[in-house]
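Friendly challenge for the regulars: who can give me the structure tokens for this chain first? No prize, just bragging rights.
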Amino acid sequence: MMKKQQTSQFISKAMLYLILLVFVAFIAAPFAVMLSTSLKDEASVFTFPPQWIPATFHWENYSKVFLQLDLIKGFVNTLLIIIPPTLLGLLSSAFAAYSFSHLNFKGRDSLFFVFLMTMMLPGVITMIPSYVIFTQLGWVDTWLPLMVPGSFGTAFCTFFLRQSFMTIPKELVVAAKIDGMSHPRIFFTIILPLSKPALVTQAVLGFLAGYNDFLGPLIYINSSQKMTLQLMLSSLQGMYSSNFSILMAGAALAVIPTLILCIVSQKAFVRGITMTGLKG
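First reply, four minutes later:
Bragging rights claimed.
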């Protein structure tokens, strides 16, 4: 009987790992194609059957990217656009999350429900009104439309942090109040230090969302000196023809910062996801 249980457990684990390997291969396939294409010459990109490992590695494709584009400028522009709103938006969302989790006021739950309903609105609905507003403000062809809205936080970030804050024992907050601590001091000395994994998780997600944003810069930025990295990469794609080897080389270079960020923050990211409770 014991042997049968061990055998069934082994088979179930093997099946689970096999399914996970299939998913990993499915997700990794585009990255493998990107790297393979970036090392090919233009003539062998669309050969059939496709060559996963090029016969000759064309490393010069990467140097051609730097010759055609000012990637450093685009990368710096991208960082200048996304880092301030990511940090300010995280702080704003944390303030709101603390209010919804540890402050008692009339209509708190109803207000939170209405706040969450904004997550159901597609971005397409607000795209044209937002463009009209920013045009009237004279913000078109500036970074402000890409920075100001995100500085006030997001509904998802507030929801995520609220769930994390609610896992912190209320007894700690009550004891702090008895000791005479104010809400700002409780927030900065108790709540935030105990919620570092959740904060890191949202910081990484916010950074990646801003780093990979293409539609926003495409709508609001016209000057080449203000272009983000994603806009610069799109300029490699011509209207009638494109050199996909160089395009994939640029995409591979653009992925490097996000990979480094994910590797560095992996432990805190996983811990933030797993420890964020669904306490209502």
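The CA atoms of residues 11 and 42 lie 46 Å apart. The chain has 14 helices and no strands. Your move, everyone else.
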